[in-house]
Amino acid sequence: MDLSAAVDELYAAPLPDFVATRTRLVTQAKGEDPALAAEIKALRKPTVAAWLLNRVARDEPRAIADLNRLGARMRAAQSQGDMAALAEARPERRTIIDALIAAAGRCAEAQGTKYGPATQDDVDATAVAALADEQSGRALASGSLLRPLSYAGFGEVELDDAVATPLRLVPPLPEDPPSDPDDDSGVADDDSAVADEAEVARQQELEEARDELREAQHDLKDARRAESQARAELVAARDLVNTHEARVTDVTRLIARLETRPKA
Asked: Can you give the pTM of this predicted structure?
């Protein structure tokens, strides 16, 4: 057993079994390689969202592969200043993100894990980060994510402590060309790169704002429908109150008349 095999087994285990699995692996490694045992012992438990995304990487890898392919296309369009291509990718972007959220939901259901709105938001944020940043896509595809990722709209995504092992040990994505540390042909003019990056961030924020507007409009429609129903129920309740008040008045008057009627 080496660290890579231990990481793969540990982060594939059910989340409630994480500590027990890690303890077993540490015990197994102690006799043969104390240094490896120490490395395994230091591996941290993932958050629920990260664990579900690790399940997706194993059970439904296509959802992550599709996301990373779209991310590569969008980053290429950004580097070329192709705003038309970026605009064309926007509808697909939302579809691909929703597909990842749905895949994580299926994994949660299969594992009997709660999948609430906060966890879904973490999956959404991680998908956005992977689209914007190649290294985030690699972290997502590694199957050993420790926490959800977040993209602020500019610069690189913070990946410190985001994966179980250093990202340099994670295999590159299949679409990635071999990296050449001496090759600077991909370095664009700084001002142009900043401008393109800002435009992509603006487009992403605009699309997210439009999505939020659609959701808010839908919620407003539901709220107005509920208000209308509540008003109708209030009118009916008032009519019922008036009916019973009239009945109480009539009966009270009847009792008064009977009490004042001369005895036979």
From this structure: 0.63
